[in-house]
Amino acid sequence: xxxxxxxxxxxxxxxxxxxxxxxxxxxxxxxxxxxxxxxxxxxxxxxxxxxxxxxxxxxxxxxxxxxxxxxxxxxxxxxxxxxxxxxxxxxxxxxxxxxxxxxxxxxxxxxxxxxxxxxxxxxxxxxxxxxxxxxxxxxxxxxxxxxxxxxxxxxxxxxxxxxxxxxxxxxxxxxxx
Length: 177
Hints:
The chain is of the alpha+beta class. It has helices spanning 2-22, 25-40, 42-49, 54-64, 71-82, 89-103, 119-133, 164-176, and strands spanning 106-113, 136-143, 151-155, 158-161. The protein has eight helices and four strands; from the N terminus they run ααααααβαβββα.
């Protein structure tokens, strides 16, 4: 996966810079999201791989995505097909979304709790996390009974384990030391 990310980074960066310049970040994000799903589809990948050359691959891909791709999006597909990189489109879409979030000062935070969080708890948590990360926070809440109580918060590389299970594990480690 890291190899695809390395391949995808220059394409995503170029697309993002163009999108910022033209003021079309949201439409580019939608185009790349759709194209990434098409490229990751097993049937579409098999059909594209069976075509004789990059031009045929690009033409078919553009026909499949005709309504979703503008002229610049079609050019990106052509360049990636010429370089044999259509398989990297899902990674391009993901990197573009990351660039967009960074640019818009947003962060996606996964919150795991033992029971569902009510709206008031989510609002309080969002306010505290926005203060801590100095960014706009988008919560993805899920439940896991193994947490027992408290929360596990994951934001990028940061993990805040305030769960009862986590505290018990830290206590056990401390007692064994």
